[in-house]
Amino acid sequence: MKAAYITRTGPPEVILYGELPKPRPGPTECLIQVLAVDVNPIDTYVRSGMIPANLTFPFILGRDLAGRVVEVGDQVTRFKPGDRVWATNQGFAGRPGTFSEFAAVDECWLHSTPANVADEEVVALSLVGITAHLGLFRDARLQAGETLFVNGGSGGVGSAVIQMAKLCGARVATTAGDERKVELCRSLGADLVINYKSQDVDAALQTFAPDGVNVWWETRREPDFERAIPRLAMRGRMVVMAGREARPAFPVGPFYVKDCSLFGFAMFNASAEAQRAAAADLNRWLSEGRLNARIDRVLPLAETVAAHRLQEESTIHQSGALAGKIVLKP
Q: Which terminus of the chain faces fewer neighbouring Cβ atoms within 10 Å, N or C?
C-alpha cells in the first residue's frame, strides 16, 4: 500500500511516500480503507523531533482518518465490513499513524460516520472537535449565558470552540488576523470578532464583557497570562492546550482572589470512552448541519511534504497562511 512515513525525524523533506506492507487486523481491530486524513500541528512536532516520542521506524504519520471498514477481527462487535467510520488519536502510544491507503485500528477508537457527512468533513473535525468538546464541557464546564473568549478563532481548534460554545448558548468573542478570517469567524457565529492587527483587543473585550469573560480559551503557543487573567470574571476559567516550551510570567494575586481556575490538557491523554462521548455529540451536530468543518485545502496524500511544510509555517512561524485544516486523500 502507499503511505507517507519517516525513517528518521527532521524537516518536512524526511517524509517519504512509497510502498509499505498492508496491515492485517488483530482480533479487536478493523482494517480500514482510508479515504481522508488531515494534518495537525502535533504531526509536525512528532515528525521534526520537536517533542520526544517513542517511534518505531518506518513510522507512518498522522492522527486522524475517515474511511470504510473492509475487514474485521474475530472479536470485533461494533462494526462490520462496509461501515463508514472515523478515528483520531492514532500514531500515538504504539498505534500506527493514518497516512496510508489502509490502517488497522482497534474498534475502541472508531466512531461511525453519519450517512450525510463527507469523509473530508468528519476527518477535519476529528481531533480538533474532540479537543474543543473536552476542554469546553468536561474541563471548563461552559454554561449557557456565559461569555467565552477564544484567542485565535480561525484555526482548526478555534473554529470548533466558537461553534460548540454557540451551540450551548454562550456569548463568544474571538480574534483574527485579517479581514478574510474575521468574516470566517463571524460566519461561525462569533458575536464579536476583533482584528488584532488593527484593533485594540483589550478595549474591545472590556466593552463586550465589562465584568470579564467566564472562559478564556488560549490557542497560542505563548500564553500571555499578564493580559488574560485581569480579563477573567469572578470564578473565571482559562484553558491552555499549546506551548510546550512556553514559560510565561503568571500573576498569582489577580488569579486567586477571583477564585479562577486554569486547565491544561492534551486530548491524546483522554480515554477511548471519554472520546466516544464527545464523538457522539460531534456526529449529531454534524448530521444536523449545526457544526461545520473548516477546511483550508484538500491535497493528495502524495503531497504530504508540502502539507507539512505549510502547516509548520502557519503554526510554528505564525505565517497565518491557513484558515482551517489541510485534508489529504490517498
A: N
Q: What is the per-residue pLDDT across 169-194, written as a single tens digit (0 to 9) for each?
A: 999 999 999 999 999 999 999 999 99
Strand partners, 297: 326
Whole-model pTM? Answer: 0.95
E strands, the chain, are 2-6, 16-19, 29-39, 59-60, 65-72, 84-87, 102-106, 110-112, 147-151, 171-176, 192-195, 213-218, 232-240, 261-264, 295-300, 325-329
Per-residue pLDDT tens for 68-87?
999 999 999 999 999 999 99
CB burial string 97-126: b at 16+ within 10 A, e below: bbbbbbbbbbbebbbebbeebbbbbbbbbb
Kindly give the parts of the chain with pLDDT less than 70.
Answer: none
Q: Which residue has the cell 462521548?
A: 277
Fold agreement (2-113+294-329, 128-267): no
From 102, 123, 113, 136, select the one nearest 37 (Cα to Cα).
123
Q: Are 68 and 83 in contact (CB under 8 A)?
A: yes
Contacting residues for 107 by C-beta, under 8 A, at least 6 apart:
28, 29, 30, 72, 76, 77, 78, 79
pLDDT at 314 (0 to 100): 86
The packing angle between helices 272-287 and 156-167, to 10°, is 70
Q: Which residue has the cell 477571583?
A: 258
Helix (H) / strand (E) element for 309: namely: helix 304-315
On whether the CB atoms of residues 311 and 43 are closer than 8 A, the answer is yes
Residue 27 burial (10 A CB sphere; 0-12, 13-18, 19+):
exposed
Q: How far apart are CA 273 and CA 276, in angstroms?
A: 5
Region 128-267: CATH code:
3.40.50.720
d(CA 319, CA 302): 23
According to CATH, what is the number of the domain 2-113+294-329?
Answer: 3.90.180.10
